[in-house]
Amino acid sequence: MTDASDGLTMVDAINRALHEAMAEDDTTAVMGQDVGVNGGVFRVTEGLIDDYGAARVIDTPLAESGIVGLAIGMAMNGARPIAEMQFSGFSYYALAQIENHAARIRWRTRGAHTVPLVIRMPYGAGVRALEHHSESREVFYGHMPGLKTVIPATPARAHALLHAAIRDPDPVIFMEPKAVYRQMREPIADDAEPAQIGTSRVVRRGKDLTLVSYGAMLNRALEAAETLAAEDIDIEVIDIETIAPLDAETIAKSVGQTGRLLIVNEAPPSYGAAGEIAMRVIEQEFYALRVPIRRVCGWDVHVPFFAREQTYLPSVDRIRGAARGMMAD
Amino acid sequence: MSRPDDQEDRIPMTAHLSWPDPKFEPHEALAPDGTLLEDDETDIGTLEQIYKTMLCARRFDERLLKLQRQGALGTFAPIKGQEAAQIGAAACLREDDWLVPSFRETGAALWRGADMADLLVTLAGWNAGNDLPEGARTLPDTVPVASQLPIAAGIAHAGRLRGEDAIVMACFGDGATSEGDFHEALNFAGVLEAPVVFLCQNNGWAISTPRARQTASQTLAQKAHAYGIPAAQVDGNDALAVMQVTQEAVALARDKGQPAMIEALTYRMEVHTTADDPTRYRDEGEVEEWQDRDPIERVRMLLVARSQLDDAMQEALEEEIRDRIDAAWKEAKDRISRLEETPGTAMFDHIFAEPTAPLRRQRKEFSDQEEAAND
C-alpha cells in the first residue's frame, strides 16, 4: 500500500476500507474471481487473504451468478459478504440473482431474512480495455426496487462510501469508475467517517449553472467548471454519488438558485440516469428553469474498441460547449 | 421400474472417446405392494409419522386444487405423487437444518411445521402469509427455476464458517438441472465443501418437456459426478428408500462437509400448476401406470400388514386431517378479511430496513391519492 502521506489512489482507498472492515467484523467475507492469492486483477483485494485467510477471502470458481448466489446465501446466514464482479460487463450473468433474490429476500420473507451484501464492480470506459470492459450500466441496478447503487468519484469518497455500503443492512451495488482507479490521489484520515448513502454532494459552489455528474465524468465536469470560470461562467458542481436512492433535493435546491441544469454521465442517454435527474428536478423546480435542461452523455451505441473510446466519452470540450450554449440561450 | 435413462441402442464409441458409465441402481426398500424388500427394521418407526404427513399433504393438495378451481386461491403447483420423495427426505433433517425449496415442496414444508393457514393466505395472494419468524430455516418458495441452489451453497458455507453443524437441503426438479445455476451451485458446493444435500425430484416432466428431452444424460444423478460430488438414484415413491439414502447424504454433509445429490425418481401425477393442461402433451395412460406406484398407498399397506393401521384408525386420521384443513381455511379466511381492511400502503413495507426518501415520498403520494379517492 501507498504511504498515506502521499495520498491514496482509489485502488488503495478501497483496499484500505476492505482491510478495515475485515478487521472490524469477523463475519465480513470477500469473494470473487482471483480476489485471494492474486489480490484481484486491479489489486483492489491485495493482502486480504494473507491477513484473514482463505475461508474469509474466497477465490471462487469462474461463475458470476454462483458468486452472487453464494454471497446472498451467506448474507442470509449471518455473514457480511462483499462480492466482486471482475468487470461490470460480466455482472449480467448475476442479474437474475440480484433482481430475483438479493433485492427481494427482505420483502419476500417480510424481514425474517435480510441480505446485507455489497457487490463491487469496476465499470466505465477510458482504460483502453477489451470489449465488455468499458460500459456504464448503472441504471440496470438503479431501476431495481430493493437495491441501492453507489458510485464514488474520488479515492476518499470511495473509502467513505464503501464503509457505508458494508454497514448498510440491505444490498448495495458499489460501482467503481476504473478510469479513476489510479488517476488521482487523496489523503484519507485515520479516523475518516463513513459517508451517507443517498445524499448528493456539492463539490463546487457557483451561481450561474448547476452541473451534475458522478463517477469518472465528475472530474471532467469539474475541469470544465474551473476553466469556464475564466469566461465568467460560475458553475455549481454536484456529485450525486448515489444512483439510487437519488437525492434530488440537493440538485433541485441548487437549480432553484441557478435556473440552469446540465447533466453529464458516460452512459448511453436513452432511459438513463440523466433523464431521471432531469425529471426529478422538473417535478420540483420547473418554474425556476430559465433555459431547457441539457445532458452530455455517451451515445446510444456500444463503447467503441479502445482506439476510439475517447470519441464516445463526454469530453471536457463537449461539456464546456453545452454550458456556454445554455448561458447564451 | 421404468427408467427414463435406458439408452441400450447408443452408438458404439471410438478408440479414445467413451460414454459415461454411471452405475446407478435406484435404491428401493419398499415394494409397491407394501412388502419390505430387505429385512431392515431401522426407520420403520418414523414411517407412521411420515404416513400421516403424506396423507395430510395429499388432502391439503386436493383442497388447494378445489379452492383454486373455485377462485379462492391463485396459481399453485400441486405435489400429488411426490409426497414420499420430499417428506421422506425432509424427515432426515434436524430442526436447525435448512430447507431451501423450489415451488413444489408443500409436503416437505408441512413436515417442517409450516402453518397451513399461512400457506393458504399466501396462495390467496397476500404477502402477509410469508410472515416468518426471524431467521426461519424453512424458506418460502423460490419461483425462478434453480436460482435457489447457489444461495443454498452460500447458506451452508456461512454456517460452516461459524462452526455450526447444521446442513442445507436444497430442492429442485428435473428441469432445473438444465439451468446454469444448478451447475454453478454444485460446482461451488464441491469446491467449498459446503454441506448441501441437493435433492432432485425427477418427476418426469418440466411443464410439457419430458425427461428424455431435458438432457441427453442417462441420469440426472451423474451430473453431480462432473463436480466431484457423490450421487444416488432412489425410488422417489418409496419413502423408506428415500429416507435411507437421504440419511447417508445428510451424514456426509454434516460430518464431512461433503455435498451430495439425490435423484428421486418420482412422477408428477397432477398438472404442472393450476394454469397448465397436461392433456395437451401427456398420455393419460402414463398417469394411470404411476397410480399403481402411489407413494402413500405402499406405506399404508405396510402399516396395515404390521397391524399399525386399521380401517377405524384410517377413518379417524382422515377426519382429523379434514378438521385441521377446515380450521386452517377458516383461519385463513378470517385473516384475509382483516387484510382486506388494511391500507394499500403496505406494499411499501419491507423494501429496505429503513424506507428511502423516494419511497417515503411515494408512499405519501399513494396515501394521499387513496384518501382523496375515499372522500
**Tally of structural domains of chain B:** 2
Helix content of chain A: 25-40%
Main-sheet strand order of chain B equals: 1-2-3-7-6
Q: Could you name the ranges of chain B where pLDDT drops below 50 across 5 or more consecutive residues?
A: 1-5
Task: Please name the CATH topology of the largest domain in chain A.
Answer: Rossmann fold
What letter string, H or E per element, gives the SSE order of chain B?
Answer: HHEHHHEHEEEHHEHEHHHH
Q: Which stretches of chain A are poorly predicted, pLDDT < 50 over at least 5 residues?
A: none
**Rg of chain B, please?**
22 Å
| Distance, first to last CA of chain A | 49 Å
User: Number of helical runs of chain A?
Assistant: 12
Notable characteristics:
heterodimer, A: 329 residues, alpha/beta, Rossmann fold, 2 domains, 5-stranded mixed β-sheet, 12 strands, globular, B: 375 residues, 5-stranded parallel β-sheet, disordered N terminus
Please give a structural write-up.
The complex is a heterodimer of chains A (329) and B (375). Chain A is an alpha/beta fold and 329 residues long. Chain A has helices at 10-24, 48-52, 64-76, 95-102, 105-108, 138-142, 155-167, 217-228, 248-258, 273-285, 309-312, 316-328, and strands spanning 28-32, 57-59, 80-84, 118-123, 148-150, 172-177, 201-204, 209-213, 235-239, 242-244, 261-264, 294-296. In chain A, helix 3 packs parallel to helix 4 and helix 8 (217-228) packs across helix 12 (316-328). The model of chain A has no long low-confidence stretch (mean pLDDT 96). Chain A is built from twelve helices and twelve strands. Chain B has 375 residues and is α/β, with parallel strands linked by helices. In chain B, the strands form two sheets. Chain B has a five-stranded parallel sheet with strand order 1-2-3-7-6, with helices on both faces. The radius of gyration of chain B is 22 Å and the shape is globular. Residues 1-5 of chain B have low confidence and may be disordered. At the A-B interface, helix 3, helix 4 and helix 5 of A face helix 5, helix 6 and helix 13 of B.
